[in-house]
């Protein structure tokens, strides 16, 4: 999508009812926040994600202790 196409979408959004404009703004803020989260991933994080995606494509089950370890790892980062 080009910058001109994006600007055209924003112009159309400005014509929407206020409630729908607010919905669009909230959605964009969520996407912006999620984008910022990706910037903090390390090379190891990316490798883990790639491995997990490959396992998912092969429909391999993930042991519960691996899931718990992953949640624990990211909880500690936030604190």
Descriptive keywords:
79 residues
**What are the low-pLDDT stretches, counting only 5+ consecutive residues below 50?**
none
- Beta-strand portion reads under 5%
Q: What would you report as the Rg, rounded to the nearest angstrom?
A: 19 Å
H/E element sequence = HHHH
* Anisotropy-based shape: elongated
Overall pLDDT confidence:
83
Helix content: over 70%
The number of distinct structural domains comes to: 2
Kindly describe this structure.
The chain is an all-alpha fold and 79 residues long. Helices cover 80% and strands 0% of the residues. The protein has helices at residues 3-13, 18-39, 43-57, 64-78. 0% of the residues are buried.
Brief sketch in words of this structure:
With 79 residues, this protein is mainly α. The chain has helices spanning 3-13, 18-39, 43-57, 64-78.
Please describe the topology of this protein.
Layout: H1 3-13, H2 18-39, H3 43-57, H4 64-78
């Amino acid at each position: 999508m080009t910058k001109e196409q994006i600007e055209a979408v924003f112009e159309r959004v400005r014509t929407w009812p206020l409630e729908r404009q607010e919905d669009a703004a909230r959605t964009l803020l969520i996407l912006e926040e999620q984008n910022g989260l990706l910037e903090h991933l390390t090379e190891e994080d990316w490798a883990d994600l790639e491995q997990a995606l490959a396992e998912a494509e092969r429909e391999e089950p993930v042991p519960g202790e691996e899931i718990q370890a992953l949640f624990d790892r990211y909880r500690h980062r936030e604190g």
